[in-house]
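Dear Dr. K.,

Following up on our conversation at the group meeting, I've run the structure prediction for Torsin-3A from Solea senegalensis. I'm pasting the input sequence below exactly as I used it, so you can double-check it against your construct before we proceed with anything downstream. Let me know if the numbering doesn't match what you have in your notebook.
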Amino acid sequence: MLVRWFLLLLGTLSTQADLFQFDSITNVSSYYFNYIYCNIWEGECQPSQDDASQQVPSRELWAGFPQDYISVLHQWYCSLGQCCESGDCRITNNITGLARDLQTKLHGQHLAQSVVLKAIQGFIIDPESNKPLTLSFHGWSGTGKNFVARIIADNLYRDGVKSECVRLFIAPFHFPHARLGDTYKGQLREAIRDMVLRCPQTLFIFDEAEKLHPGLIDAIKPYMDHYDNVDGVSYRRAIFLFLSNIGGATINDVALDFWHSGQNREDIGMEDLEHRLRTETMESQGGFAQSELMSGHLIDFYVPFLPLEYRHVKLCARDAYIARGLETDEATLDEVAKAMLYVPKEERLFSAQGCKSVPQRINFFLP
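The predicted structure tokens came back this morning:
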């Protein structure tokens, strides 16, 4: 009965063709017929992020429709559970969930927990921000940089890192050849512009940022600057995350100094790291460090990830077991933790591998 009513509605709308372009009817009916086929008739389909027929029709698409018909169609669409208070169901902005996940899932990173939550929360609740949010994650491999990026995506977007509002770039994978720098610049600009046009709040993640070719970041520097718009497009509701190993030595030295002086790890504050981290980043080599993001002071927050201690590695192992539904005990967790490398070795103080290597010991992938 619902489908029959919908078909009658589309037929009625088609008689008003003189009021708007026929292409609008085609696009709208294509979306809703696909929705019915996939979700009501349970047809075999796998919506593609790049398939326009899978996208919720934009406001521009509805511009020519009579308001009465829009209201009726909107009520029908919401009756199927596809409406949400945000106006865009792809965006959840669950700050409470973000705080909880950072507190319970991320181990040994009190600074990252605090800075990331403060930065994301401040950006989300301030719709009048005068620039995109740009965060730079620093530290040894395996300390949680990718993991935190995933936590952010999971709590800001319904589909997490798979959301069409999220884009991951891995420097050696997406931009492998230095001689193709100019080509990469054009592709990167186009990809970011397209994402921002398709989604009102976007998340861009640049992994292994220290390996980006010179000039590549400068090509998109205007998108992270204090501009109302760039070529008619506003990027102010975008979030840029840069993940790198730059500054890892500085972070480790500070952590080791605190240990030698008998101070608690949790007493390390941003005042102990931020200036040194910023300086090391600007003095390092590579396209990211030498970009105008640094000289133009466009990085909003430098986020340090401390080296993990033996106790933190055990917690990572415990979480990996739990996530797979496996039981464990202290002896097993100790065996996993002992398999890691530590510096200084005799003290088992800082893991040289971090949580990233733990899953390999128990055949489980922890992002």
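Two things stood out to me. Residues 22-40 form the longest helix (19 residues). The longest strand covers residues 133-139.

Best regards,
J.T.
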